[in-house]
Amino acid sequence: MRRFLDKLYLVSGGLAAVFTVGVLIAVTMSIVTRQLGVHIGGLDAYAGYSMAAAGFLALAHTFKSSEHIRVSLVLAALPDKGRMRLDIFALLVGCLITATLCWFSIKLAMDSYTYNDVSTGNDATPLWIPQIAMAVGTVIFFIAVVDETIRRIKGIPEAGHGEEARYE
């Protein structure tokens, strides 16, 4: 299971990188075609969709790589047991927040599909298509937060923080 989850986070990060390149391509094409006097409708929208997909798909990989911004000043001042308890509490709150984000992003994509919402731009893209990346990204992020919470409850220190994350 550990290998599967680590691979899931890595694939999610890889997809985020692909969508980041998609932003680059869409913006570059927009600039070049504007200079050539050619109009390709929807390039700005697709750059935005790619940027949103990259951001949401990167959440889990970034979290599991310990790259999210974290204020550890209070944690560092606590004894080991207090640090562990506060960290687990924060992760449990994170589980609630990510579960809510997950629920509403899935609901948004399903509602857009149900009501046939389309973008207001020239591209008229069905909005559920780019919203799938947001829903998938939040689901994987939720899995990552739950995974980290379970690991922390078992006493496994956070990967990437070495000694400061140990609770002995």
From TrEMBL:
Q: Which residues cross the membrane?
A: 9-33, 45-63, 84-106, 126-146
The molecular function GO annotations come to:
transmembrane transporter activity
Organism's domain of life?
Bacteria
List locations, semicolon-separated. Cell inner membrane
Any Gene Ontology CC annotation: plasma membrane
Domain Tripartite ATP-independent periplasmic transporters DctQ component: where? 24-154
**What is the annotated role of this protein in its UniProt record?**
Part of the tripartite ATP-independent periplasmic (TRAP) transport system.
Q: What is this protein called?
A: TRAP transporter small permease protein
Source organism per UniProt: Pollutimonas thiosulfatoxidans
